[in-house]
Protein backbone atom coordinates (compact mmCIF):
# COMPACT_ATOMS: atom_id res chain seq x y z
CA UNK A 1 0.00 0.00 0.00
CA UNK A 2 0.87 3.66 -0.42
CA UNK A 3 0.06 6.15 2.33
CA UNK A 4 -0.74 9.85 2.01
CA UNK A 5 0.57 12.53 4.35
CA UNK A 6 -1.93 15.15 5.39
CA UNK A 7 0.46 18.07 5.93
CA UNK A 8 -1.39 20.89 7.70
CA UNK A 9 -5.11 20.21 7.11
CA UNK A 10 -7.08 23.25 5.97
CA UNK A 11 -3.93 25.19 5.09
CA UNK A 12 -2.89 23.33 1.94
CA UNK A 13 -2.84 26.55 -0.10
CA UNK A 14 -0.31 28.08 2.29
CA UNK A 15 2.07 25.11 2.42
CA UNK A 16 4.81 27.01 0.59
CA UNK A 17 4.69 29.78 3.19
CA UNK A 18 4.44 27.28 6.04
CA UNK A 19 7.63 25.66 4.73
CA UNK A 20 9.61 28.77 5.76
CA UNK A 21 9.24 28.34 9.56
CA UNK A 22 9.72 24.58 9.18
CA UNK A 23 12.99 25.18 7.33
CA UNK A 24 14.08 27.60 10.04
CA UNK A 25 13.26 25.00 12.70
CA UNK A 26 15.37 22.41 10.91
CA UNK A 27 18.27 24.83 10.39
CA UNK A 28 18.28 25.85 14.06
CA UNK A 29 18.03 22.22 15.21
CA UNK A 30 20.77 20.97 12.89
CA UNK A 31 23.13 23.92 13.45
CA UNK A 32 22.60 23.99 17.22
CA UNK A 33 23.16 20.29 17.79
CA UNK A 34 26.14 20.10 15.44
CA UNK A 35 27.69 23.09 17.23
CA UNK A 36 27.16 21.39 20.60
CA UNK A 37 28.88 18.25 19.34
CA UNK A 38 31.83 20.29 18.05
CA UNK A 39 32.18 22.18 21.33
CA UNK A 40 32.08 19.01 23.45
CA UNK A 41 34.59 17.39 21.11
CA UNK A 42 37.08 20.26 21.00
CA UNK A 43 36.83 22.06 24.37
CA UNK A 44 38.80 20.37 27.13
CA UNK A 45 36.71 21.86 29.95
CA UNK A 46 33.61 20.18 28.48
CA UNK A 47 35.09 16.71 28.80
CA UNK A 48 32.84 15.82 31.73
CA UNK A 49 30.00 13.29 32.10
CA UNK A 50 27.17 15.85 31.94
CA UNK A 51 28.47 17.19 28.62
CA UNK A 52 29.02 13.70 27.22
CA UNK A 53 25.34 13.00 27.94
CA UNK A 54 24.47 16.31 26.30
CA UNK A 55 26.42 15.25 23.21
CA UNK A 56 24.45 11.97 23.13
CA UNK A 57 21.23 13.97 23.36
CA UNK A 58 22.40 16.15 20.46
CA UNK A 59 23.09 13.03 18.36
CA UNK A 60 19.59 11.69 19.08
CA UNK A 61 18.07 15.07 18.18
CA UNK A 62 20.02 15.16 14.92
CA UNK A 63 18.75 11.69 14.07
CA UNK A 64 15.15 12.71 14.81
CA UNK A 65 15.42 15.82 12.65
CA UNK A 66 16.94 13.90 9.75
CA UNK A 67 14.30 11.16 10.08
CA UNK A 68 11.37 13.54 9.61
CA UNK A 69 12.95 16.07 7.24
CA UNK A 70 12.58 14.15 3.92
CA UNK A 71 8.82 13.65 4.15
CA UNK A 72 8.07 17.04 5.72
CA UNK A 73 10.01 19.07 3.13
CA UNK A 74 8.68 16.88 0.31
CA UNK A 75 5.15 17.91 1.30
CA UNK A 76 5.79 21.63 1.66
CA UNK A 77 8.28 22.12 -1.17
CA UNK A 78 7.29 19.63 -3.85
CA UNK A 79 3.68 18.77 -2.92
CA UNK A 80 4.65 15.09 -2.64
CA UNK A 81 2.19 13.48 -0.21
CA UNK A 82 2.76 9.77 -0.82
CA UNK A 83 5.06 7.19 0.74
CA UNK A 84 5.31 3.42 0.26
CA UNK A 85 4.81 0.92 3.07
CA UNK A 86 8.48 -0.07 3.42
CA UNK A 87 9.69 3.54 3.44
CA UNK A 88 6.98 4.44 5.97
CA UNK A 89 7.91 1.57 8.29
CA UNK A 90 11.60 2.47 8.05
CA UNK A 91 10.90 6.09 8.98
CA UNK A 92 8.62 4.94 11.81
CA UNK A 93 11.33 2.65 13.21
CA UNK A 94 13.93 5.42 13.33
CA UNK A 95 11.53 7.97 14.84
CA UNK A 96 10.38 5.66 17.63
CA UNK A 97 13.85 4.24 18.28
CA UNK A 98 15.48 7.66 18.55
CA UNK A 99 12.62 8.90 20.75
CA UNK A 100 13.25 5.97 23.11
CA UNK A 101 17.00 6.68 23.05
CA UNK A 102 16.36 10.31 23.92
CA UNK A 103 14.15 9.28 26.81
CA UNK A 104 16.89 6.98 28.11
CA UNK A 105 19.49 9.74 27.84
CA UNK A 106 17.24 12.15 29.76
CA UNK A 107 17.09 9.51 32.51
CA UNK A 108 20.89 9.20 32.47
CA UNK A 109 21.18 13.00 32.74
CA UNK A 110 18.87 12.97 35.76
CA UNK A 111 21.11 10.37 37.40
CA UNK A 112 24.13 12.55 36.53
CA UNK A 113 22.57 15.52 38.36
CA UNK A 114 21.69 13.31 41.34
CA UNK A 115 25.28 12.12 41.68
CA UNK A 116 26.68 15.64 41.20
CA UNK A 117 24.52 17.09 44.00
CA UNK A 118 24.27 14.16 46.42
CA UNK A 119 27.82 12.78 46.05
CA UNK A 120 29.97 15.60 44.62
CA UNK A 121 33.25 14.21 45.97
CA UNK A 122 32.65 10.81 44.33
CA UNK A 123 31.26 12.27 41.07
CA UNK A 124 34.20 11.41 38.83
CA UNK A 125 34.70 8.00 40.40
CA UNK A 126 31.03 7.02 40.03
CA UNK A 127 30.48 8.44 36.54
CA UNK A 128 33.62 7.27 34.79
CA UNK A 129 33.98 7.54 31.02
CA UNK A 130 33.43 3.80 30.77
CA UNK A 131 30.14 3.95 32.69
CA UNK A 132 28.94 6.97 30.72
CA UNK A 133 29.61 5.08 27.48
CA UNK A 134 27.81 1.99 28.77
CA UNK A 135 24.78 4.06 29.78
CA UNK A 136 24.60 5.60 26.31
CA UNK A 137 24.92 2.21 24.64
CA UNK A 138 22.26 0.78 26.95
CA UNK A 139 19.82 3.52 25.88
CA UNK A 140 20.59 2.81 22.21
CA UNK A 141 20.29 -0.99 22.50
CA UNK A 142 17.07 -0.73 24.49
CA UNK A 143 15.55 1.52 21.84
CA UNK A 144 16.54 -0.79 19.00
CA UNK A 145 15.37 -3.94 20.76
CA UNK A 146 12.02 -2.49 21.86
CA UNK A 147 11.16 -0.82 18.56
CA UNK A 148 12.28 -3.52 16.11
CA UNK A 149 9.01 -5.52 16.51
CA UNK A 150 6.89 -2.47 15.54
CA UNK A 151 7.46 -2.57 11.76
CA UNK A 152 7.49 -6.40 11.80
CA UNK A 153 4.06 -6.55 13.46
CA UNK A 154 2.65 -3.95 11.03
CA UNK A 155 4.18 -5.57 7.95
CA UNK A 156 2.02 -8.69 8.41
CA UNK A 157 -1.24 -6.71 8.28
CA UNK A 158 -3.42 -5.82 5.28
CA UNK A 159 -4.34 -2.13 4.92
CA UNK A 160 -7.81 -1.29 3.70
CA UNK A 161 -9.16 1.52 5.90
CA UNK A 162 -7.99 4.43 3.79
CA UNK A 163 -4.50 5.73 3.22
CA UNK A 164 -4.33 9.15 4.85
CA UNK A 165 -2.00 9.63 7.83
CA UNK A 166 -2.53 12.34 10.44
CA UNK A 167 1.01 13.73 10.34
CA UNK A 168 3.78 14.63 7.94
CA UNK A 169 5.64 11.44 8.90
CA UNK A 170 4.87 7.87 9.99
CA UNK A 171 4.06 7.03 13.62
CA UNK A 172 3.03 3.59 14.86
CA UNK A 173 -0.48 4.41 16.20
CA UNK A 174 -1.25 6.42 13.07
CA UNK A 175 -0.25 3.62 10.66
CA UNK A 176 -1.87 0.92 12.82
CA UNK A 177 -5.32 2.52 12.69
CA UNK A 178 -5.35 2.07 8.88
CA UNK A 179 -4.95 -1.70 9.13
CA UNK A 180 -7.99 -3.92 8.69
CA UNK A 181 -6.49 -7.09 10.16
CA UNK A 182 -6.25 -8.20 13.78
CA UNK A 183 -4.37 -5.42 15.62
CA UNK A 184 -4.81 -6.53 19.25
CA UNK A 185 -1.16 -7.62 19.41
CA UNK A 186 -0.06 -4.25 17.98
CA UNK A 187 -2.18 -2.34 20.48
CA UNK A 188 -0.90 -4.42 23.40
CA UNK A 189 2.74 -4.12 22.36
CA UNK A 190 2.38 -0.38 21.78
CA UNK A 191 1.00 0.01 25.28
CA UNK A 192 3.84 -2.08 26.69
CA UNK A 193 6.34 0.18 24.93
CA UNK A 194 4.81 3.36 26.31
CA UNK A 195 4.68 1.99 29.87
CA UNK A 196 8.03 0.21 30.08
CA UNK A 197 10.06 2.68 28.05
CA UNK A 198 8.78 6.24 28.40
CA UNK A 199 6.65 5.60 31.49
CA UNK A 200 9.40 3.92 33.49
CA UNK A 201 11.95 6.55 32.39
CA UNK A 202 9.72 9.41 33.52
CA UNK A 203 9.01 7.68 36.85
CA UNK A 204 12.73 7.17 37.52
CA UNK A 205 13.45 10.78 36.53
CA UNK A 206 10.79 11.93 39.03
CA UNK A 207 12.35 9.74 41.74
CA UNK A 208 15.80 11.13 40.93
CA UNK A 209 14.55 14.69 41.38
CA UNK A 210 12.77 13.81 44.60
CA UNK A 211 16.13 12.58 45.92
CA UNK A 212 17.87 15.65 44.49
CA UNK A 213 15.47 18.03 46.28
CA UNK A 214 15.98 16.06 49.49
CA UNK A 215 19.74 16.47 49.12
CA UNK A 216 19.37 20.18 48.34
CA UNK A 217 17.37 20.73 51.53
CA UNK A 218 20.31 19.27 53.41
CA UNK A 219 22.62 22.04 52.15
CA UNK A 220 23.15 24.56 54.93
CA UNK A 221 23.40 27.81 53.00
CA UNK A 222 20.63 29.37 50.91
CA UNK A 223 23.18 30.30 48.28
CA UNK A 224 24.37 26.71 48.04
CA UNK A 225 20.80 25.46 47.63
CA UNK A 226 20.08 27.90 44.80
CA UNK A 227 23.36 27.06 43.07
CA UNK A 228 22.60 23.33 43.24
CA UNK A 229 19.06 23.79 41.89
CA UNK A 230 20.31 26.07 39.11
CA UNK A 231 22.40 23.22 37.71
CA UNK A 232 19.17 21.23 37.22
CA UNK A 233 16.96 23.89 35.61
CA UNK A 234 18.03 23.18 32.03
CA UNK A 235 17.39 19.47 32.39
CA UNK A 236 14.01 19.98 34.11
CA UNK A 237 12.88 22.28 31.29
CA UNK A 238 13.96 19.80 28.63
CA UNK A 239 12.19 16.94 30.41
CA UNK A 240 8.91 18.88 30.35
CA UNK A 241 9.16 19.96 26.71
CA UNK A 242 9.86 16.33 25.78
CA UNK A 243 7.36 14.40 27.92
CA UNK A 244 4.59 17.02 27.80
CA UNK A 245 3.83 16.71 24.05
CA UNK A 246 4.51 12.96 24.22
CA UNK A 247 1.83 12.52 26.88
CA UNK A 248 -0.58 14.77 25.00
CA UNK A 249 -0.15 12.94 21.70
CA UNK A 250 -0.58 9.56 23.45
CA UNK A 251 -3.85 10.70 25.02
CA UNK A 252 -5.02 12.22 21.73
CA UNK A 253 -4.63 8.88 19.96
CA UNK A 254 -6.81 7.26 22.63
CA UNK A 255 -9.57 9.84 22.02
CA UNK A 256 -8.88 10.53 18.35
CA UNK A 257 -12.60 10.66 17.51
CA UNK A 258 -12.89 13.79 19.70
CA UNK A 259 -9.90 15.71 18.28
CA UNK A 260 -9.59 17.62 15.03
CA UNK A 261 -7.06 16.72 12.29
CA UNK A 262 -5.49 20.16 12.70
CA UNK A 263 -4.88 19.52 16.42
CA UNK A 264 -3.26 16.18 15.54
CA UNK A 265 -0.96 17.82 12.98
CA UNK A 266 0.07 20.73 15.21
CA UNK A 267 0.73 18.59 18.28
CA UNK A 268 2.62 16.01 16.22
CA UNK A 269 4.89 18.73 14.85
CA UNK A 270 5.50 20.16 18.32
CA UNK A 271 6.34 16.68 19.64
CA UNK A 272 9.15 16.03 17.16
CA UNK A 273 10.33 19.51 16.10
CA UNK A 274 10.52 21.52 19.31
CA UNK A 275 12.87 19.41 21.50
CA UNK A 276 15.68 19.15 18.87
CA UNK A 277 15.48 22.90 18.35
CA UNK A 278 15.17 23.97 22.00
CA UNK A 279 17.63 21.55 23.64
CA UNK A 280 20.85 23.22 22.37
CA UNK A 281 19.39 26.70 22.93
CA UNK A 282 18.41 25.98 26.53
CA UNK A 283 21.76 24.45 27.43
CA UNK A 284 23.68 27.22 25.65
CA UNK A 285 21.81 29.90 27.60
CA UNK A 286 21.80 28.18 31.00
CA UNK A 287 25.20 26.44 31.18
CA UNK A 288 28.18 28.64 32.03
CA UNK A 289 30.80 26.31 30.56
CA UNK A 290 29.00 26.12 27.20
CA UNK A 291 28.58 29.91 27.07
CA UNK A 292 32.31 30.30 27.74
CA UNK A 293 33.15 27.76 25.03
CA UNK A 294 30.88 29.59 22.58
CA UNK A 295 32.52 32.93 23.31
CA UNK A 296 35.94 31.35 22.89
CA UNK A 297 35.00 29.78 19.56
CA UNK A 298 33.59 33.07 18.22
CA UNK A 299 36.72 35.07 18.98
From TrEMBL:
Mode of membrane association: Multi-pass membrane protein
Superkingdom of the source species: Eukaryota
CDD domains: 7tmA_OR51-like
UniProt keyword terms in alphabetical order: Cell membrane, G-protein coupled receptor, Membrane, Olfaction, Receptor, Sensory transduction, Transducer, Transmembrane, Transmembrane helix
GO cellular component, one term: plasma membrane
Gene3D superfamilies recorded: Rhodopsin 7-helix transmembrane proteins
UniProt cross-references to InterPro entries, sorted A to Z: GPCR_Rhodpsn, GPCR_Rhodpsn_7TM, Olfact_rcpt, OR51/52/56-like
Subcellular location: Cell membrane; Membrane
Annotated transmembrane regions: 16-39, 51-78, 90-111, 132-154, 187-220, 232-253, 265-285
Domain annotation G-protein coupled receptors family 1 profile: ranges: 32-283
Pfam families: 7tm_4
Gene Ontology biological process terms from the UniProt entry: cellular response to lipid
A GO molecular-function descriptor: G protein-coupled receptor activity
Primary location group: membrane
Family, per entry: Belongs to the G-protein coupled receptor 1 family.
Protein name: Olfactory receptor
Organism: Oryctolagus cuniculus (Rabbit)
